[in-house]
Amino acid sequence: MQTTKSDAPSTPRPVEGTTDGTGWGRWGWRAFLVATAVTAIIGWFFAASMDPTGGPYAMDERYPFGSALRTWQVTVGFDWIAYAILFGAAGSVARRTGSRRLWGALGVSFVILWFPHVAIGIALAVAGE
Q1: SS (H, E, C) 90-102
Q2: Is the residue at 28 inside a domain?
Q3: How many domains does the structure of the chain reveal?
Q4: Does a structural domain hold residue 5?
Q5: How far apart are CA 1 and CA 16, in angstroms?
Q6: What is this structure's pTM?
Q7: Residue 42 carries which DSSP code?
Q8: In terms of CB atoms within 10 Å, which of 43, 62, 90, 120 comes out highest?
Q9: Tens digits of per-residue pLDDT, 48-99?
Q10: Domain range holding 35?
C-alpha cells in the first residue's frame, strides 16, 4: 500500500510559549544556565571564606564564622547558593510550562539580586577606586 501525503504522520506544532531548542529559546536557556552557575559559584566563594573561631562571641566583633565582615560574607554566600538552587528549579519549571509570568518573575528577582552589586561597582568605578 502506498502512502500519500495525507496518510503520513505529521510533526506536531510546538505549543505556544515553549521552546523547540532552536534560536532565541536555546540561547536564552544557555544564558539562564550560565547566570545560575555564576550565581552559585559566587555564593560558594563567599561561603568558603569562613574563618571558624572559638568563643566567646560578641556582637559586631567576634562570630562563629570570623569577624563581623567575614560572617556577613559567609551568610550572603549561603543565601546566593540557595537562590541559585531555587532560580534553577524555577527556570526548569518555566521552561517546561512556557510560563511567561514565571520567566518575568525570575528576571525581576535576578535584577533585584544583582542591583546593589552593580550599583556599588559603578559608584566605585566613577570614584576611581
Answers
A1: HHHHHHHHCCHHH
A2: yes
A3: 1
A4: no
A5: 36
A6: 0.64
A7: H
A8: 43
A9: 887 777 777 777 777 777 777 788 888 888 988 999 998 888 888 888 888 8
A10: 23-127
